Amino acid sequence: MKFLVLRTSSLLLTRACSQADDLYSSFAGLAAMAITFPLPGWVATKVNAIAKERAKKTDARVQEVTESTSPAKLASTVAG
Questions:
Q1: Cα–Cα distance between 72 and 80 in angstroms, integer?
Q2: In a 3-state reduction of DSSP, which class is residue 80?
Q3: For position 9, what pLDDT does the model report?
């Protein structure tokens, strides 16, 4: 009977420690979520800035090509 009482108290102590560990790990998870919460917004801002820069450079290239081909189109229209 004495062994059963010790075994039961040991089991209860193990469960209490396990529940405390679960509690601490849940707090650690919540802390990690709180710390990394702004990260997707920051990444989206950076991606948006890069996309705007690429669009400006692409527009500049398209404008140059359009300006360089316009005289040729005009000459072919006049000569045509």
A1: 12
A2: coil
A3: 52
